[in-house]
Amino acid sequence: MDVLQLPVSDEPVDDVAGPRHGATVNFIVERLRDAIVSGRLKLGARLVEGELTAEFRVSRGPVREALRRLAADGLIELVPHRGAIVRRLTRREIAELFQIRLELESLAARLAAADGDAARRRRFAADIAPIFEDRPRRVADYLCENAKFHEAVYALGNNEQLKVLAGRLQLPLIMAQVGNILTSDVLDLSVTEHRTIAAAILEGDPERAHAAMRTHLSRAAEMADAERGAEDC
Amino acid sequence: MDVLQLPVSDEPVDDVAGPRHGATVNFIVERLRDAIVSGRLKLGARLVEGELTAEFRVSRGPVREALRRLAADGLIELVPHRGAIVRRLTRREIAELFQIRLELESLAARLAAADGDAARRRRFAADIAPIFEDRPRRVADYLCENAKFHEAVYALGNNEQLKVLAGRLQLPLIMAQVGNILTSDVLDLSVTEHRTIAAAILEGDPERAHAAMRTHLSRAAEMADAERGAEDC
DNA sequence: CTACGAGGATTGTAGGACAATATCAGAGCC
DNA sequence: GGCTCTGATATTGTCCTACAATCCTCGTAG
Prior knowledge:
The structure is a homodimer. Chain A is built from ten helices and three strands; from the N terminus they run αβααββααααααα. Chain A has helices at 24-37, 49-56, 60-72, 91-114, 118-128, 139-157, 160-167, 171-178, 184-202, 206-231, and strands at residues 46-47, 76-79, 83-86. Chain A has a three-stranded antiparallel beta sheet. In chain A, a hairpin with a 3-residue loop joins β2 and β3. In chain A, α1 crosses α3 (60-72), α4 packs across α6 and α5 runs antiparallel to α6 (139-157). The longest helix of chain A is centred in the last third of the chain and has 26 residues, at 206-231. Chain A binds chain B through residues 22, 61, 64-65, 68-69, 72, 80, 92-93, 96-97, 99-100, 103-104, 107, 159-162, 165, 168, and chain B through 22, 61, 64-65, 68-69, 72, 80, 92-93, 96-97, 99-100, 103-104, 107, 159-162, 165, 168-169. Chain A binds a DNA duplex through residues 18, 20-22, 24-25, 48-50, 58-62, 64, 78-83.
């Protein structure tokens, strides 16, 4: 189980462990999160404290803390006296999360369009510039672009609480689990919708931004559900 | 600092500590949460691991874990090498949280009104019965009734993710910090609005329930903001 | 074949130790 | 007097070891 190792680690072994004092837990969380959303840790894989302490060369304290944090984010599930397992979202959970995301993100879009701060608007325009480029996109490219776009909307929306709450919606995990539906057609459509939303925000039309975001996410939710329905449950 | 002790504890001292194996952390979390929302722990009060271990007769492990959990819920703030302090929400944070709550809870109201499960509807009707009673309400009564009402809406809404997310919105904390605006007039108005919402849900009118909930929370948000504006910032 | 018990695996908690870091009081300097 | 620097103190961050509690598995007896 070396899926957790950094790409290159020929350095002395103790370099693999946490960086500075006070950052050990963060280090472990990030590594595990990355391993999960990237799929290196498969769904249902067990995470045992003992193995992780050996893997990261740290004591059980930080490991336990890291696991609790991942569990709070919903990436793993803690089973008492059994260990933690990488969580698989059920079809229903995905539907529910999309329903929530629909509300939160359309709110963010409306707030973003209504925001008057010039600096933030410039920042937004710069951040989302990539979506207007006409270039072929691979799935990985799109996922990255997509994450940045939605994040930029939240940032311009300027509601800090909303931003942190959205971060807890496990979007990366969802994407990882339904990512295989992203054909080139779907991808183009998504990019087009992003542009529509962005245009409404940049023109300062809150209601149009709100509606466009709802449309975008409704469609995404339906696709995810259809895909998930085909494959299980 | 005996604000954490249970009301009555004449029993042998070791009864104060955690109940059964595996519930220690929960025990500490609940006690601290209660102490915070009830106001026994004042805003800005320090929570030091060492004191808590002595207070609860447990080791640092569970205490640390409990603190992390409370911090994740936003009730306290962890300051590195300084300890944790009971968090005071800023005026802005409260406004932002209400904005989010407005969306989530009006979604819940719509879902609740649209839900067709007979058993859940019966359960809902039973749970909210108290709001239709015509009796004088003290603030504490209302707070309890209010919490139960909104919880019942979420339950009928039948979106599990939405329910857990709403639980992270620190409503009790907000209530504790703006609770002093609850005059008898305000209280009556809130009860009336609750009835309006409940009626729409019971009649199965999603849009009316949605709108009524928005009205209710918009008003509440304005009042909270006005109060907070007077007192600080 | 099933019930049951023994043992292993794993987490939950305890307690002690030391390192790292933030805070604070006081000494010394300007 | 006010300022800076330094040491002492407080507190968390991490590690270690040990044991208790619990769940799981597997072999055995009926």
